Here is the input.
Amino acid sequence: MATMTVEVDSAVDAVYIRLADSPVVRTVELSDAVLVDLDAADSVIGIETLSSVVGLPLDELGERFHVPASVLGILSLVRPSASLLATANSSQVAAGRDLAAVAVG
Here is the structure.
């Protein structure tokens, strides 16, 4: 079972959701504010939002990149909101970063 990690950089209002530890082979720009990192097999290994107010394009992630429904369900709960995630661990946010992890499978 993989571990999904969510990293918030409140200094630049960015959120990175890591789905796997594979090396990034290429990055697809879904919009000006949403980037998707892919591995050698074109599997999604990370999603970056460059604004905490941008939602994830869950339908496109499922249809275009074949992200499993179980992962999409978790992503819908972890919506990239820097202010919401930062509240969970204010001591790390004071340093400009926050991390959260959840098991996915």
Remarks:
- Residues 2-104 form one domain.
- The CA atoms of residues 27 and 51 lie 17 Å apart.
